[in-house]
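Revision sheet: structure tokens.
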Amino acid sequence: MTVTDQTARAAESALEMARVDSHLHPEGSFDVDAHPVPTGREEIWRFTPLKRLHGLHADATLAGDAVSATWSAPEGVRVATVGGEEARGLRGASGLVPNTLVSARVLAELTETLLVDVPAEAELTEPVMVEVSGTDAATTSGSHVVLRFGHHSRAVVVLNHTGSASLAQVVEVVVGDGAQVSVVSLQDWADDAVHLTHQQASVGRDASYKHVAVTFGGDVVRMDANVTYAGPGGEAELLGLYFADEGQHLEHRLFADHTAPRTKSNVVYKGALQGAKARTVWVGNVLIRKIAEGIESYEENRNLVLTDGCQADSVPNLEIETGEIEGAGHASTVGRFDDLQLFYLRSRGISESEARRLVIFGFFNDLIRKVGVPALEDQLMSTVESELERNVLKGYAPVSTGPVA
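Predicted:
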């Protein structure tokens, strides 16, 4: 055996050993009993405040009726609540094999699925709007949603979550070959809501998928936004915007699993925090499998801390099994206002509160304009304005510590 062979064998052995301990290679199962109740010591649960989840991560009932959905859709798009054999056939439509007790229970216990079916080659000029509303955070509920886009279709689906609820949710997205689609998930819950959502997408050959997560409301919101590739040439853009206030816990976990060659993933998430015990968590996972030669991947997370007493965790992870790639990288920052920007604005006669407002709007504006739904973009800018009015523009003490990268 040559030295080169020995080095290669050692590298392969080290890779296999790393894979055993890697949370990027989960062993999923549809069997509920195969998933233990999380304790908080697991890697994928270590940031989440389990005691505030109303038991959704454990054995709370998912049969509550406090959450309902209404919708509007262009002609030719089927939106319906289905049951029986059709609903059972949609379990795991995206290729999802549950790796948590929450998602396993949703797929095993719920008897109905909300299906949005966009036919092949359809070109929608208006978005499909799905309004998910809750009436009682004390009642725990579950939901399974499947968004299916036929080959070479063009469409946008918006999931808007409002009201009071405790909801465990699985959203599966199937993007057909050559399709160009966007899914926008807006979490604008009331202050007492708890939302655990796993949103899994399978991107077809030469298809383009944009997922936009916007989280403002809720007591605890945890979103897993995952993407895999069903063929070469697929592209995924994962965008996120979040704004945490006093006491809120907002957690976003991304996983781009490059399972086919010549695929792309681009992740950009931006968040702001204000108020005592405001907490955000961003975990960006990218796995480039051995088969995924010629891929491109980049992930970025920026956090703006507006007041003292906040905590932002930003954890990028990159696991590469092949060196035959076009490029892969990440950037992650947590920091306060840029003093130079504030000084520049104030030196031109702009008040401190207005200067802060302009800096924050500039921070979010470029990302909001990528949503692709003009009416929703305007709504998001108004929501950011409302968030700022709650604290920063009303004299809440600004953060006094320096930036942390």
